[in-house]
Amino acid sequence: MSIVDRHVGFVHALREAGLPVSLAEGLDAARALGVIDLAERESLRAAYAATLVKRPSHRPGFDMLFDLWFPPVTTGLAAARGTRDTRDDQDTGDAASDERAEHRDRLADLLMGAPGMAEFVQAMVERYGRQQAAAGRQNWFSYSVLRALSPETLMARILAEVLAGQERGGLAEKMARQRVNAGIREFEDAVAADVRRRIAEDSGRERIARSAVRPPLDQIDFLRVTKADLANLRREVYPLARRLATRLTIKHRHGHRGRLDFRRTVRASLSTGGVPLTTHNRPRRPHRPELVILCDTSDSVSSFAHFTLLLTYALREQFAKVRAFGFVDTVDEITRFFVPGADVVEAMTRLANEADMSRFGRTNYGHSFERFAESYGDAIGPKSSLLILGDARSNYQPLALPTLRRLADQARHAHWLNPEPRRQWDTGDSAATAYGAVVPMHECRNVTQLTAFIEDLA
């Protein structure tokens, strides 16, 4: 494969993985290849990163795809199929144990910073990672390598050698642990990368790229986020909360003029013979708007509800007052669970155990809206912004549209964020169009769409 073909395939794979790479940026990267030494792999990586990567969250996916399209070595698996290594069948007893002990000794040295990690990883994947599948085929697994060498079990041995009689629990032990843990992570990442490289050689880069590369954090579907994703989303949410509060404030300030400034108006009229041809108004004082959040917490949108909690935590610092309500088929105020600094997963557990949001466990938007209007209707006022979060699926129950319209009319602004793709609206029990006719509904499946929603508020 020529360098041009690799370049085109690599840029296409980045776009397929969700990284925004324009045609101009692809051309910039191609020009950069002409001013670097192509034999220097890390220089090549840096040139591509400088021209194609826009955000730190895009870097992991970029690095993974770069390793697939520009691997450090090639193994020649087609030839290897005919010369199968049979040591796994022959090694038995003490010989196999001695070999593994030698490998663990070498790994212990590498975990403390000795050179040669890349070569060692390639040899270990070749030794322990290959397993025969059907005739003429072989599979590669990182798990079998890690199980054979068990790097995490080397910690006690390394600490005993490094400390050499020093007091345990001090700064020296802490630094040694950090160094070993960093080495273990480097080893695990290198094993995974080498396994991906070998699978790509055997099955094709495009196939492994589609299955191994996760989309960037800002494009991960809220309905599929993991606990680790939630921890990373915290950094994305707080700036968005500040922007949302700012947008609502600007919209409020531009929509209404301040009170008449009588003194300035009279003073200006002196130049026109006392006739107030020009009036002056006092500037409106910047205000912190109030926010009411009404969130579907049913199982069908549980991951989205986790993100909603993150957003609510962040919004509390930007609005003068935030009241949050959760519902399944009835509604309960859940503001009390939003203690600053509390763990999101712990808050969700408390919500499930303590909040009264469900009678029968089946989502019922209509009954929830009616219960909200009856019990908490005074939460919405002329200074409030109403934010509804849910998929608008009400199990074919009455929708209570007049009640929702009355609530929306009481609020200064009302918006609905729906985590389902727009193409799924109005399918099955979805009432998205009916509710969207009362409260403007926006597709909001990831951080990118949430950002676009906030920008459109201006």
Low-confidence stretches: 77-90
The CATH topology of the largest domain turns out to be: Rossmann fold
Q: Specify the structural class.
A: alpha/beta
The mean pLDDT is: 81
Order of helices and strands: HHHHHHHHEEHHHHHHEHEEHHEHEHEH
Task: Give a short overview.
With 458 residues, this protein is α/β, with parallel strands linked by helices.
Structure description:
This protein is α/β, with parallel strands linked by helices and 458 residues long. It has four domains: 67 residues; 117 residues, no CATH class; 202 residues, Rossmann fold (3-Layer(aba) Sandwich), CATH 3.40.50.410; 27 residues, no CATH class. Helix content is 53%, strand content 8%. The chain contains 20 helices and eight strands. It has a six-stranded mixed β-sheet, with helices on both faces. Strand 6, helix 18 and strand 7 form a beta-alpha-beta unit. The longest helix has 33 residues. It is elongated. It starts with a helix and ends with a helix.
Give the secondary structure arrangement, pairings included:
Elements: H1 3-16, H2 23-32, H3 41-52, H4 59-69, H5 77-80, H6 87-90, H7 93-111, H8 117-128, E1 130-132, E2 138-140, H9 142-149, H10 155-163, H11 171-203, H12 205-212, H13 227-255, H14 262-269, E3 290-296, H15 302-316, E4 321-327, E5 331-333, H16 344-354, H17 365-376, E6 384-389, H18 401-410, E7 413-418, H19 432-436, E8 441-443, H20 447-456
Parallel strand pairs: 3-4, 3-6, 6-7, 7-8
Antiparallel strand pairs: 1-2, 4-5
Helix pairs in contact: 1-4, 2-3, 8-9, 8-11, 10-11, 11-12, 13-15, 13-20, 17-18
